[in-house]
Specification:
Elements (H helix, E strand, L loop, with lengths): L14 H4 L8 H20 L6 H15 L3 H10 L3 H13 L12 H20 L7 H4 L1
Length: 140
């Protein structure tokens, strides 16, 4: 028939059609991201260089949690969608051979890029506006 078209299927996020499996409203996806963040925070705590008593305590707790064989660790890994043995192996390797994940203050590449950018912006601002002050000689 002339003039008839097939209706396009709605692929947007709708609660009625595909809610449990839709990527933009999937609560399971958000949950797994949250549990992955718990593991990430534990790694950050374990690799921390902070020297306060409180942070030292959290560091030891994180190392114990990541390298031990607790049910909590296994549950969190499974909820995050990770293999607990693999995460434990990688955590032990990271703790044994820590690699700086962040440059020291004032030493990183991005720090120098931002510093040069700020200097260029200041120069641009200084050159953009002419002096508004008129000397006494020009007034006479």
């Amino acid at each position: 028939m002339i003039g008839t078209r097939k209706k396009k299927k709605n692929t947007g996020c709708t609660l009625k059609n595909s809610w449990p499996f839709d990527s933009c409203t999937n609560p399971v996806r958000g949950e797994s991201a949250m549990w992955a963040a718990v593991i990430t925070q534990a790694l950050m705590d374990a690799l921390s260089k902070a020297r306060t008593t409180d942070s030292s305590y959290h560091k030891q707790e994180a190392i114990h949690w990541l390298t031990g064989n607790s049910n909590d660790f296994t549950t969190v890994c499974l909820l995050a969608g990770f293999d607990p043995d693999y995460v434990r192996k990688k955590a032990k390797r990271a703790i044994a051979n820590p690699v700086p994940w962040r440059a020291e203050p004032g030493k990183g590449k991005r720090y120098h890029e931002r510093r040069e950018y700020r200097q260029r912006q200041l120069e641009k601002e200084n050159n953009q506006f002419p002096s508004i002050y008129i000397s006494e000689k020009e007034c006479v």
